[in-house]
Structures are given as C-alpha cells and as structure tokens.
Amino acid sequence: MRPEEISKKTEQLVNIKIEDLPPLPPPYTNYEETPITPLKEEQKKKWEHSLDGVSALTLPRPETPEEEERLVKLFLSGLEKLMTKENNWTFLQPLMLSMEYCAKCQTCADACPAFEMSGRKDIYRPTFRADVLRKIAKKYLSPGGKILPGFRGHDIDLNWETIARLAELSYRCTLCRRCTSVCPVGVDNGLMNHELRKIFSQEMGIAGPEIHEKGSVKHLKFGSSTGMTKAAIADIIEYLEDDIEEKTGKSIKIPLNKKGAEILLIHNAGEFMAWPENPMSFAILFDAAGIDYTLSTELTGYDGVNYGLWYDDVQFARVALKHLEIARDLGVKKIVIGECGHAHKALSVIADRLLPGEQMIPRESSYTLLNEIVKSGKIKFDPSKNDFPVTLHDPCNVVRLMGIVKPQREVLNAIFPPGRFREMEPHGVENYCCGGGSGFAIMSSGNFTDWKRLVSGRKKLSQILNAFQGEMDPSIRKMVCAPCSNCKGQIRDMLESYEVFEKTGIWYTGLVELMVNAMVDQEKPFLEWPGDEDDDDM
Amino acid sequence: MGFLQILTYLSGLVFVIAFAAKLLKYATMPMHVRWELYPIPHEGKEWGGSFYEEVDHWKKTRHKDHMAQYRFMVPEVLFIKALHEDNKSLWYWSFPFHMGLYLCIGGLAFLAIGAVLQILGMVPQNSALASLFQSLTIVLAVPGYVLGTIGILGLIVKRKTDSGLADVTAPIDFMNLIWLGLLFVTGFIVWLQDPGFVVSRAYFVSLLTFSPMKEPMGLIHVINLLVFIGFWAYFPFTHMTHMVSKYFMWDKVKWDDDPNRGDPGMDSKIKKYLAYPVTWSAEHVDAQGGKKNWADVATSNPWEAKEQK
Question: Could you say which of A106, A352, A406 has the minimum Cβ distance to residue B164?
C-alpha cells in the first residue's frame, strides 16, 4: 500500500487477521488465538477506527465539515511549528534530517517487530507514517510543493481521514528505535513518530487518554499517574514496612524526605500498587548494604514516570524539572532510578539538557548501583536459592537508548547457579521491545488491548518461549526477569492472556526480587509464583 | 570561453553554494536534547555499553575512543556495511552503484591532476608522472562506469519488482537513477572513443585556464558533459546528498552522548533556548500565543495551581 492511500475515503484501510500473523513457537504452534474484538456499532459511530479497525485513542469523529476543516488546519499549523527552532529546539535537527533524507530502502521494515508480527502490513512499516508526514510537509508547506506532486512523490491529500488515521497510527509504534539502529543513512523513523505525537498533543490536544488525562495530568495534579496522593504514599510505605517484617522478619524503616541523604530513590509508583515486592526488595537490599537514601512524598517525587517522554515535550519538561527540584531541595548527591525503563531515559538522558549544568543533579541507574552492591560483597547471596531457569528482558529505554547492558547480567550471573541464566535472541542493544513501550503497557482504550496482544507483544512472547524451548514442562518453573515496570506490565498481560504459566511454567518478576530471594539471610523464599498462596492454604 | 565551460562553472557554483547552505542549515540548528542510540563506538564497549554502567560516572574522566568511530565509519562509507548486514538483497545493487560512483569521482580527481600536469607541460607522451595519472584515471573510471551501470540497472529492476520498494518509489526516483545511469553509460562510451581521456583532459585544461578548447569535442563527449553538468547542479537539492545525514545523524545525534556537566558553552545555549517563545496551541500547554517562553511553560503546573485555588 502506498502512503498516499492513507487519504482514501474507505471504511477501513487494513484488517488484522489471525491467519496472517506469524505463528508462535511451541507449545503455541496450533493455539487458537482470539481475533481483535470488533468495535460495537455505537463505538464505531463515536470513535475513529478507519485505520485498522482499532481505536487506541477513542478519538471522536468531527460532527461537522467545518470542524473537520478546523482540525486539518490545526494539524498543518502544528507541523509548521514542529519545524521551527522556537517551538521545537529540543528535536529540530534530528527531525529535519529524518524528514529530508530517507533513501526509501525499507531496511528499517524488517527490524520493526510491529510490522513483522502484523503479518507485514504496510501501514505498520516504520516509513509509512513518516512518509505521510514528509509528503504533507512537502506538498503543503514547502515552496512550490504543489508543482508536479505526483512525479515528485508527494501527491497526498490532507483530509480528515489522513489526520484521523495518522493519529491512530502514531500509536502503533512503541518508539523502540530498532528501525533507527539499522538505517543506513541514519534516518530516525522512531523519532518521526514521536514528533507526530507531539503535533497531536501540543497543537491539537489529542493524545492517548491513559498517558495524558489519566497520566501526566494526574501526575502533576495529584503527584502520581496512578492517582496516588501524598497522604496515600505515606500510608503505603507503612504497609510495605509491615509486609517486609512479615516476609523477612526484619524491621526496616523506609526513610522518607530525609534531608541530606546520599540518594533520592525514585520508583515507578505503579510498583507500589501492582508489585509492592519491588519497592520492598529495594528497601531490604539498601538496608542490608547500608545505603544512605530516601524516598520523597512530594508531588511527583514518589513517581518516577514521565509520560511526556512519549508524546509531549511540555509535559515531559514539567515532570522532569519537578523531579530535579525535589532532589535539590532534599540536598541529595544523586537520584537513583528504580526499575522503570522510561524513567531512566527521561531523567538521565533527555532531561540532561533542560537546565544549565549547575542546576542538574547526577542521576544513576539502579541496575548500576545494584551491581555495585553485589560486587562489594556487603550482602551474601546463595545462588542455589534461585535454582530455576531464567531469562532477561532488556528494556529498550535502558539498553539500546542508554547503553546499560552489563550490570544487570552481572547481577543475574552472581545470584543464579551456573547455566541457569540464558539470553533471549537477539538481546542487549539489539533486543526487541516488550510490546508495551511508549505507553502501550498502560493503554487499554477501545479494543487496543487486543492489538497489543496480537501484534506489538507477539515478538517478545515468541522470544520468551524460544528462550525456554526444551524445558516447556509446566512443572519446571521458569522466570523472565523484566527490570522495568511497563515491560513487566506488558509481559504480565501477555503471559496471562496466553495462559503461559499454566501451559509452560514461565512467570515474570523484577531484578531486585530475585536478589532478595537469593540473600543468604532470607529464610523463606521471597519470590511468589502463581498458585503459591493456594499451596500455602492447603 | 565556450558555452559548455560557462555552464560547467555555473553548475559548480550552484553545487558549492547549495551544498554549503545545506551544511550550514544543519550545523546552525539548535543543540537538541540528547537522543543517542547504542552501541556508540567511542564508548569503547563492544557490547554496546556506556558510561552509565559505572557508579558515580560523573566523577570519572571520560575516555572517548575516537579511532573506534573511524573503524565503524570507514567500512560503512566504503562498503555500506549496515545495508550489507540488514538488507543484503538491496546491497547487491546499492554497493556496486556506490562503489562505481566513488571510483568515477576518483577518476575525475586524477583527470584533474592530469590536466594540471598538462598545463605545466607534462603530458603522458613525455612524462612518466602524467602517464601514471592517465593510467590511474582509466583504472578507476572504467570499472566505475561498469559497476555503476550494473548497480543502477539492478536498483531500477529491484525498485520495480519488489512491492515494498515499488510502493515508496516515485517517478522522480527512477528519473534520478536513469540520470545517474546515463552518466555511467555515456562515460563508458566516451572512454571507448577516447581510451586515454585525452579530450576530457583537454576540456579540464580549458576550464582551468579559462580558455576555449582547441578542437571541438565529439557528440558523445558533449552529451556526457551535459548529463554531468545538469546532475552536478541538481544533486544538492535532492535526498541523494544523504552523506549529510550520515554525518549529522551519527556524529551529532546517535553518538552525541556528551553529558551536561556545566560546560559554559552548553549552559549558554540552554539559557538561550529556554527564552524562546512558545506558540503551541493546545490548552494544556498554556503558551498564551507566544507570551510565554519555554522556561515559563516548563516551570508551570496548571493543575497544581487549580487545585490550590
């Protein structure tokens, strides 16, 4: 399909069919998968869905032709602003290079898991949405753009169909930038998608509801994208302390708002709600290693997420500056980021040039610090306590986009018996996204959950299954270590949707939970597997 | 001076100005936020690691392995290594085309040197040095024409027959390929008619001495020259100048991992950018049509204020 066809006035451009998708590895070779749930008639009337029958944004259809025209104009003005230094100094140079230099070789397509796992649907090629943007810019914004547009390859119609489909299409890429890694001329189609989302958000106020209204807005309003308030976090920390005592017999006080502490530790607040063992494990390890740290209960200070990273520079900057301000007020020497991939990249890399140097606070990955703890010998680990097969998921934001590859592997090799840790293929900087990147892990509007299950998460599920081939007996418990909250959420959803634990014995956890499980002075197993509570009851 | 010479000068002038403008455009764009992508060769960690793998990295002196960048870039430029690894079926045609182009550029450079020697009175008949440069011109240019032609033909067929490529290839892309193909084919025919590139060298001499040719050129020479002159002037306006993106995207984007440690130059840029007015229209940005700058919008929290009210 040619990118120009995005403007076609048809009910739906593409249909995702199960039979087109690449098969999953054993034991799922003949597994009967559930197709994407079609939107109901009333939903179809309300929401745009003409791209692929999926609505991730629940984008309302304009009610009048005038409204359509207004939105089309707004998009064009946003694209124009995107190409000015005043409005987009943050990404102007890489954007303009990527706009101008695509050699149309399609090398990026084979690197994209969404394209591959969709059964190679053209609309999911990394170049497709980027090309649409290039063509619109050439035809409507460049001098002489309407001269011979067909011959010059940008004869595209800018109508509501184009805009609506582009909006949805910008949420079919996880921004993993695997495509960029392989581009022979360095074009960054991942960035183009990021910038496309910025037009929709910063100019038109259109974004995934879970990442804007229920995400970054909640973060700035209540202190956390989970909606957790300052008062609630203090209560939750108390619960965690009680749970630590129950599980380890240790009475540990988790420091809050401690002025002058060495480290401000920031977790993804989702951990407190969905996986409290993760912040508990950090508390146990830091306590045992004698680390001087604190958590913050200030607005945004207890939630390291920064959803703006995926769609909006302004929201991004607001949250990042709050994080830095809190660290400065506490007088810490560094911020350590918990197991959250995008929080790593947001605060360590992207926020690095938001303020003059004297106002910056050093940021460090928890992976690096955890590895240092292991190497220091301050905590004794007994690898035999982790005597089960394990594989490691590499969060894109930490690995390909930050270059933290070895520390987490060195930790696993220290806390697992020899031969138990095996890599996925490919791994490290060539890894595949979990399928939940760029906000997908928390997005569930319309029938988007089905698309994630069938398409964006499919490659990672295949990789996980392949890592344990030959040991698929469900009685052999196996673990995926996913040291990132969003990746963990996506992997959880995939494992549950496909009943992977029941069929194969594969489950998931973070890195710190595995470390605590292997601590010599941890008497009871710390890790919990599905069904463990039932066993205890019996 | 003849018409062709004037056209050649103009074409060269257009090329130099347009290409320089292009380089200047990108070189003067604001410093962007960091957007690096690993592996970064100068980190010197073959597994793709970075300084973030070290505790308290900001307290340590950074060591950049600059030679590693060249070890990456030289095979990339010469052999298009990335395409070889990730898109071999296209590399089979793209590589001979690019190598053909490099060889022809090399041949042209030796032809120019031969012309300078000729002005100095050294011609292949009386000078070993001039003879050497004549041979080098032939040794580079002729295989260049052949490889280039093979590559172009392959690329045209590939772009016509591969549906993934055909959908994204515009008529102008075929025109560009055909134009380059004509350059190679007519160059080859020129060599068949003029195996020592004597006429071509004489034309170069006329260009360098601002004097007319003593003998008029043959038709095929003129055609080859016109094809070249046109392409030279047209080239900087096309995406075929992707060596620009290759430099900037690698050196200034994918490999730019310089952390902000209070460098005065970086600080002053950041302060300047934070003062840029913002005109994004979405309500939550609250830019007030450019009344607010980046510092204003980034340090505001509209929701916190509403809560307090």
Answer: A106
